[in-house]
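Table S2 (text version). Query chain:
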Amino acid sequence: MNSEIITTEILIIGSGLAGLRAALEASKSGKKVIILTKSRITDSNTLYAQGGITGVDPARVASGKDSYESLIQNTLAAGDGLCKREVVDYFSYNSYEAIKFLMEQEVPFSKDANGWVLHQEGGHDHERIYCVADYTGKAIEETLVSKVLEDPNIRVYEYFLTFTLITKRKLRKDPNIEDRCLGVYAIDRKNETVITFKANAVILATGGAGRAFQYTSNPENATGDGIAMAYNVGAKIANMEFFQFHPTVLYEPFGMQSNERRFLLTEALRGVSMGGILTTGEDSKEDFVLNYDPDGSHATRDKVSQAIDAEMKRSGLKHVYLNVTTAVTGKSPDYIQEHFPQIYAHCLNKGIDITVEPIPVVPAAHYTCGGVLVDLSGRTSIPGLFAIGEVSCTGLMGANRLASNSLTEAALFGKLAANEAIKFSEKENSEDVPLWYTPGILSHADVATVNQIWDVTRTTMMSLCGIDRTEERLRAAVGILESLYDTINKIYWGYYPNDQIFETRNLIQTAKLIAQAALFRKESRGGHFRSDYPQKVPGYEAMTLIQYGAEMKLVPV
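Corresponding structure-token output:
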């Protein structure tokens, strides 16, 4: 069950863009790197990103076609008062570094006769979104994975689920000593063996928690592991109430299991460049979102998702329509097929020709705007532990993420965190780290029980902590989740190690943090909407912060 201890200089948990960039950067310095990934190395949220990646090209700035200040203001507006200005400034002025890096790795960004194909998505004032047709994330992921697998300094362990961080304070059971992250416990999913990984520095790149909700665009591995693990060892967690729902995933009432990933329809379809609109009827050509926001279907994701949710409840609709037909957008069928080949093919397979028919859509959980609180270099509140990408809260996203900023953040801050981890890893980890031990193991847990707990967690979050929240719903959600956590925790300590148990425990812990933060913030802002407090409230221009064993509080941005 517990067979060995594996050591390395830098340990990275996760294999999306942030983790891969960090690994390549650390390797360049000669450091020995291990990547742990809970499924295939390519299976991350990055793989499913369609629309693109933000970058302000200095040449376009010089020609007056874009500006750094424009991206700053667009990001701040989307973040609704909770962005860290210094982080947003750094992001904007350095965004093109992420594009250059990916070009150097030979990511095949789309071109036409005029040069790079650039989109203008909702919330952006200019065309600055680089893409690879409508499968940008897939192209980025596969390109970087090929580089990582060729790198002699990087070892990859696939199908290893990391479930617990090892820290000095936890190990010695002394909250007063100077803390340090020492490594992790991970279970080999193929043989249910728990392996101890010891490292000089640990980087969390585990992604978000979309799977906490019944309907999500996220893949199966987006279960909030990194957030839960960091919280359990005392790291600071911020802004968990701000969960972004993507306005447009394909509505499929039949033939889908509740745990399947919903097919995403990229922001670029509704962007100014494309001109798609949301309608309430199959034959309608009126943008109903204009009834809720002056920017209509081109508004930011939080506004559009809330508008769809409100309209569906008002009209009793099961879905709305995304209309990108030639008749509405003026784009030729060839243009639509060329720029959105993956979406065109997928919808056609479902019997929908998007060049002549509108697409039935609903919102779904998409992006975790909060997470493990870090500084610009990815440092958490625990020495030796870093966090990057969606698992982190850098202050860039604020209350709502601007479209296509996440991949840029992952690439930029993955590099910064790697450089900081390189320096920290010079401090040798001399602690004796034990093998994993579970007392009182009698038998294997009942899989049906664990599966039921998983399902109840996700339906609870969707129905009680989704787009429209109230005090009554949130209190009910917190009560249910606390009861579920007590049950899974007993299973966690009382039975043979099992990846489903570990993953479900992490999922519930992260779901609890989302619900508790949503209950705490008695206002509406960004991706957090409460119909009992529908307006922003003075005094809440601050981050929610929680640590294990402490009360939740507001702290300055």
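Notes on Table S2: The mean pLDDT is 95. The radius of gyration is 22 Å.
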